[in-house]
């Protein structure tokens, strides 16, 4: 019996959480299934080391058209199991047994802030997958959301498998990191710039704190993440900030540079309104960066007692924690 993996996002140059998850899963499975027949479906030419029994199938293109092409190939492996770490559409298009990762239920719980095409696809496909797929939820919180949204879903068909930390983010040994010093006046946040990440609240709170107390005016807020969509509210918060020079937008950066920022920053702030897991929390903890986190969804489950929490809809609550 063979395993087919939709591996597209694992090899994106600019990987977000799902891409990091997929690549980490593939690297782990290379060790566990080195003797098994595994097929990776990709959409770009790659030079990577794989076990002898593994193979790459290149399918040019992207998006929905790519998934229809991939489905045609998967049908030629009728006994293979499909592992779909990022898509609900692909397992819907085939009759193969499938394992599908559910990272979050944003399309159902925060649809107004989500990509419309993704909302339509997920609303159509996921209810039809729950009867013939095994689901992986990345947190107990995500599993609860699934069971509440789909009362007919058998909880036994959902396994909670937490996301893991990439080895790239494991802090170096004491001898290697001795030259890295914490900047006590550096605050860090990491996320794609989209409304659900609630960065406007963080910028407003940071600005208000600096206006109220001159002792905080030397602090810098470093914001790491690629641009997303619907950024008008964020732009307004930046525009009305009286200390714009203290806002440092990095865009997407390499893991190496990001790790250094974690190690240099005195605190990491995660103001998100909703997460299925919250991988940056693990990254911050691994690099000994103190955490202030939203108290919603999966975040208290992930950070436990390693964070200070605040209500992500209350600016004053965040200011107090800062």
In angstroms, what separates the terminal alpha carbons?
A: 53 Å
What would you give as the CATH superfamily of the largest domain? Glycogen Phosphorylase B
Unreliable stretches: none
CATH class of the largest domain: Alpha Beta
Per DSSP, what share of the residues sits in E-state strands of 2 or more residues? 15-25%
Can you describe this structure in just a few lines?
This protein is of the alpha/beta class and 322 residues long. The protein has helices at residues 17-32, 63-74, 89-93, 106-109, 116-129, 140-149, 174-177, 199-212, 232-240, 255-264, 279-286, 299-303, 315-321, and strands spanning 3-6, 38-42, 54-58, 81-84, 98-102, 133-137, 158-160, 183-190, 220-224, 247-251, 265-270, 290-294, 307-310. It folds into two domains: 3-160, Rossmann fold (3-Layer(aba) Sandwich); 172-321, Glycogen Phosphorylase B (Rossmann fold, 3-Layer(aba) Sandwich), CATH 3.40.50.2000.
List keywords for this structure.
2 domains; six-stranded parallel beta sheet; 322 residues; alpha/beta; Rossmann fold
Overview of the molecule:
The longest helix has 16 residues, at 17-32. It is built from 13 helices and 13 strands. The strands form 2 sheets. A 7-stranded parallel beta sheet has the order 3-2-1-4-5-6-7. A 6-stranded parallel beta sheet has the order 10-9-8-11-12-13, sandwiched between helices. It has helices spanning 17-32, 63-74, 89-93, 106-109, 116-129, 140-149, 174-177, 199-212, 232-240, 255-264, 279-286, 299-303, 315-321; strands at 3-6, 38-42, 54-58, 81-84, 98-102, 133-137, 158-160, 183-190, 220-224, 247-251, 265-270, 290-294, 307-310. The chain is 37% helix and 20% strand. It has 2 domains: 3-160, Rossmann fold; 172-321, 3-Layer(aba) Sandwich (Rossmann fold). The chain is α/β, with parallel strands linked by helices and 322 residues long.
């Amino acid at each position: 019996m063979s395993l087919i993996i939709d591996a597209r996002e694992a090899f994106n140059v600019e990987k977000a959480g799902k891409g990091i998850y997929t690549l980490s899963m593939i690297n782990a499975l290379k060790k566990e299934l080195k003797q098994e027949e595994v097929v990776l479906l990709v959409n770009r030419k790659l030079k990577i080391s794989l076990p002898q029994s593994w193979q790459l199938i290149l399918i040019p293109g992207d998006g929905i058209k790519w998934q229809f092409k991939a489905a045609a190939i998967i049908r030629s492996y009728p006994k293979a199991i499909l592992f779909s770490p990022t898509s609900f559409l692909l397992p819907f298009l085939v009759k193969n047994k499938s394992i599908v990762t559910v990272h979050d239920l944003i399309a159902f719980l925060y649809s107004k802030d989500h990509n419309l095409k993704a909302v339509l696809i997920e609303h159509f496909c996921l209810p039809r997958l729950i009867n013939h797929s095994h689901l992986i939820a990345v947190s107990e919180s995500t599993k609860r959301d699934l069971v509440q949204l789909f009362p007919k879903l058998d909880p036994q068909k959902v396994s909670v498998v937490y996301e893991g930390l990439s080895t790239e983010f494991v802090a170096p040994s004491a001898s290697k990191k001795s030259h890295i010093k914490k900047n006590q006046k550096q605050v860090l946040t990491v996320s794609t710039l989209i409304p659900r990440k609630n960065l406007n609240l963080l910028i407003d709170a940071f600005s208000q704190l600096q206006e109220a107390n001159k002792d905080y005016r030397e602090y810098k807020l470093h914001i790491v993440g690629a641009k997303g969509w619907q950024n008008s509210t964020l732009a307004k918060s930046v525009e009305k900030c009286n200390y714009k020079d203290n806002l440092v937008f990095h865009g997407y950066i390499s893991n190496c540079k990001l790790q250094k920022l974690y190690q240099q920053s005195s605190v990491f702030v995660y103001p998100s309104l909703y997460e299925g897991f919250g991988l940056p929390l693990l990254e911050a903890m691994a690099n000994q960066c103190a955490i202030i986190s939203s108290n919603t969804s999966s975040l208290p489950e992930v950070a436990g007692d390693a964070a200070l929490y605040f209500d992500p809809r209350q600016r004053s609550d965040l200011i107090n924690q800062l």
